[in-house]
Amino acid sequence: MTKPAFLALFGRRALSATTIAWALPALLGALVIPGAAMAQRPPKGMATMFALPSDIIAREIGFARAVRDKGQWQAFRDHAAPDAQMFDGDKVVRVQDFARRSANPATPLQWQVHNVWMSCDGATAISYGGWQQGAAHGWFSTVWQRQKKGHYLFVLDQGGVTEKPMAEPEWAEAKVAECAPRGQKALEFTPLAVGEYLSGESSDHSLEWKTSARPDGTRDYVVEVKIGGKMTEVLRRASK
Fold first, then answer.
1. Which domain holds residue 17?
2. Which of 44, 98, 167, 202 could disulfide-link to 124, CB 3.0 to 4.6 Å?
3. pLDDT digits (tens, 9 = 90+) for 102-134
4. Which of 176, 177, 172, 175 has the alpha carbon at shortest distance from 25?
5. Does some domain include residue 189?
6. Considering its fold, how many domains does the chain have in total?
């Protein structure tokens, strides 16, 4: 392996004061996101919880704090679902197994969340942003799923390197997908098959992500959100 997987394909960081200042009100239940869609209550018959992107920001803050306090790979184990996936080079690996046998880096990872997209029912969310570690930098995207007790664990983490560091926005932008029209029959919950997280969709079909391999071993990654009655592409990145 020519470079550590955590440098090549995903990034984490100790979140900045700007992001923490944005997210702290969420923990107090009084978050207002400039320019972001307001959280929507799903129609009757769908999820009973609100879709709150601020929950993901708070989760990322806790994740970053754990990297500092417990070490990078223990933090990954604590925040990953049992069958969560990521990449080691061009190879798909289980986060729990990879993290268990990996040594913590001398220089801790840092990252900034730039965007959060969440399904209408709040069960699935995708975060996106930039990471840095020493002179290295790139982008990351993480798929989070709400667990039975209400907390979120990630099921997929991936990313790539960039030619230049990604500029951190003043505000993290959040978008909640549109809900099904009132009166429309609620969709039954159909969870993803165990271990099938490279591509998937939320249980209410309002949020999708796709990972596809290229002949040269790199990957394309696309996120789509239901906006204006149709699935709309909001992110397209390639690993390098």
1. 5-184
2. 202
3. 999 998 888 889 999 999 999 999 999 999 888
4. 172
5. no
6. 1
- Rounded to whole angstroms, the Cα distance separating 106 from 210 reads 33
For residue 106, the domain's CATH number is: 3.10.450.50
Instruction: Please name every residue paired with 85 in a beta bridge, in sequence order, or none if there are none.
Output: 94, 156
- Kindly report the length of the chain: 240
Burial class (CB within 10 angstroms; exposed 0-12, middle 13-18, buried 19+) of 86: buried
Task: For tokens 């165990």, name the residue.
Answer: 194
Q: Which residue stretches of 43-144 are H helix?
A: 53-70, 72-79, 95-100
Neighbouring residues of 238: CB distance < 8 A, sequence distance ≥ 6: 160, 214, 218, 219, 220, 221
Report which of 236, 192, 175 is spatially closest to residue 210, judged by C-alpha positions: 236
pTM of the full structure = 0.78
Q: How far apart, in Å, are the Cα atoms of 161 and each of 125, 176, 235?
A: 22, 27, 16
| Cα gap 134→142, rounded to integer Å | 22
CB count in 10 Å sphere of residue 92: 16
Under a CB-based contact definition with an 8 Å cutoff, are residues 74 and 99 in contact? yes
Six-digit token string for 3: 């470079």
205 in a structural domain: no
Dump pLDDT digits (tens) for 73-92.
Answer: 999 999 999 999 999 888 89
Consecutive H or E run containing 86: strand 80-88
What are 133's two structure tokens?
Answer: 């570690």
Q: Does residue 215 belong to any structural domain of this protein?
A: no
User: Is residue 94 situated within a structural domain?
Assistant: yes
Quick one: DSSP state of residue 44?
Answer: T
Listed ranges 57-66, 93-102, 190-199; the one with the highest mean pLDDT: 93-102
